[in-house]
Design a protein that fits this description.
Elements: H1 10-16, H2 27-56, H3 60-63, H4 72-103, H5 109-120, H6 135-164
Length: 177
């Protein structure tokens, strides 16, 4: 069984990547592939949140008007929404992992999935663990993760705000001259 990133000292990780097997790329190619992945993941994310929004329906306030947010039903609803959002993020992380594996930028798929997860979530590991020809993809994945995690947070706050609304409409402020 090949060693994994977690079982190797940092300096040894880079030596585990067979540079002859890695698909080489110029900086321009890295940016182009990265841009393609950004577009793909934004589409996946947008479609995922749109679908989740449609499943929840626009009448969420009416369907849940008698549900307390901290009740069993309210908690179940929140867990389903959160699990759905996490699933969308998993899909995006796996897309990057498949790319890293295809490019042979990391020794194993397990390493690619681990590296993609920590890059996407911006925890970071060390870019010395990925083939030098593909480091820019990891940087772009980190930037994308920040944006998409923020988008998901905004979506969740909006949905939970609808769940917690007490049904009273706010009166608009009078226009000031």
């Amino acid at each position: 069984m090949p060693p994994t990133l977690a079982s190797l000292p940092l300096a040894a990780v880079a030596s585990e990547i067979d540079s002859e097997q890695v698909i080489s790329a110029t900086f321009s190619v890295q940016l182009a592939v990265g841009a393609g992945m950004l577009v793909l993941c934004v589409l996946v994310h947008g479609i995922g949140l749109f679908t989740l929004s449609r499943v929840l329906g626009s009448d969420i306030e009416k369907r849940f008007e008698n549900v307390q947010p901290l009740s069993f039903r309210g908690t179940g609803f929140t867990l389903i929404v959160v699990a759905s959002i996490i699933l969308i993020h998993f899909i995006e992380v796996w897309l990057f992992a498949f790319l890293y594996d295809y490019l042979r930028a990391l020794p194993t798929f397990q390493d690619a999935l681990y590296f993609s997860t920590i890059s996407y979530s911006t925890i970071g590991y060390n870019d010395a663990s990925i083939a030098e020809d593909w480091r820019m993809i990891a940087a772009l994945e980190g930037m994308l993760g920040v944006i998409l995690l923020g988008w998901s947070t905004a979506f969740l706050v909006r949905v939970l705000g609808k769940l917690e609304s007490d049904g009273t409409a706010r009166k608009p402020r009078p226009a000031s001259d």
